[in-house]
Amino acid sequence: MVDRLHILDGRMIAFLNIDKVIKVIRNSDEPRPELMQAFALSERQAEDILEIRLRQLAKLEGIKIEREIKALKAEQAELEKLLANESARRKLAVKELMADGETFGDARRTTIEVAERAAAAPVESLSDEPITVICSRNGFLRTRTGHGIDATTLSWKEGDGALAVLETRTIHPIVLVGANGRTFCVRALDLPGGKGDGVPATSLVELAGTRIVGVLSGPAETPLLLASSGGQGLRCQLGDLVTRQRAGKAFMNVAEGERVLEPVVTKADTKEVAALSAQGRLLVFPLEEINALSGGGKGVILMRLHDGEALVGVRVVSGPVKVRGKGRGDKVTVVTVTGADLEAARGSRARAGRVLPGSLKSVTGFADPAADTTTGRTP
């Protein structure tokens, strides 16, 4: 539109000066620049005039040109008004849509009806039954129906053995704790039953190369104690570790070269915990000195370690403390710490603790409270 108006303005100038224009064209070797200079034309206008035959140029009708110019300028003004007014644009769009609807519209071909409420998605129901979750050291998981299973009757792959034999119920989450501080969840209904070897945990969750150090299951409010080989620890609840992510949940921060130790289930009446170092030092201190961190983290210092030393275990104290290690001839030995020796190990969190009594050459961790005492001190 703008270009057309520009051309018509040039033609109107040519029409009003037709004789002079013809004279310039006939007598000039380069008429275009002379036309531009003589009549203040643009290059585009001068080119248009030169493309018109002289006979045709002489017959141009001024009234016709004026009418077209007037119509184009009116349309230009209307478009500029629309561009400057959003409300006017909306009204025009509605008007044009209504007009198109009257011209091209027909009766609705689809039927609009009230839809029936969709049935709710089926909920996978899970009965509340007692089960025993079995996890091997190499990460194979299985279940057995009921409780009271004799762990000595369980079979394992060659070179494997028991990591956890845990009594729980089908409605409770099953949490796997990784050595890297991540936690993973599996469902009881996804674990095979019977007397087979089970399924590898890697087929259910993405362990990403970490080793399972503990298996937990029970009510969400079950209190727990987590510790790392670097001597840090924190309190939390089982529900804090639950996650739906196959890749697990980062919960306890551990430094490079460190690992999370076997988690400990505490009770409401738990007052003390024991920390054990690889160099055979024992520290007993109040549980309440450990911070509760529901969101996880690094925790607080449980025991002051020597350079290069590691924490090998934590345990709830409810009586004598039993420690497993190697004695003379590298024989596996269990030392029971009780009486005055246990009292001497008591102190506050972050202390160095006391050297264990007995003749252990190396310490591997706490022993089961029911383990036989091969050597040790008594009251």
Could you explain how this protein is built, in words?
With 379 residues, the protein is of the alpha+beta class. The protein folds into three domains: 82 residues, Topoisomerase, domain 3 (Orthogonal Bundle); 93 residues, no CATH class; 135 residues, Neuraminidase, CATH 2.120.10.90. The protein is built from nine helices and 19 strands. The strands form five sheets. Strands 3-1-2-6 form a four-stranded antiparallel β-sheet, with no helix packed on it. It starts with a helix and ends in a 13-residue tail after the last strand.
Task: Give the SSE layout.
Elements: H1 2-16, H2 18-27, H3 31-39, H4 43-51, H5 54-58, H6 62-84, H7 86-104, E1 130-136, E2 140-145, E3 162-169, E4 174-178, E5 182-186, E6 199-200, E7 212-217, E8 223-227, E9 232-237, H8 238-241, E10 249-250, E11 264-265, E12 272-277, E13 281-286, E14 300-301, E15 311-317, E16 321-326, E17 332-337, H9 339-344, E18 354-355, E19 362-366
Antiparallel strand pairs: 1-2, 1-3, 2-6, 4-5, 4-7, 5-10, 8-9, 8-11, 9-14, 12-13, 12-15, 13-18, 16-17, 16-19
Helix pairs in contact: 1-4, 1-6, 2-3, 3-4, 6-7
Structure at a glance:
With 379 residues, the chain is α+β, with helices and mostly antiparallel strands. The protein is built from nine helices and 19 strands.
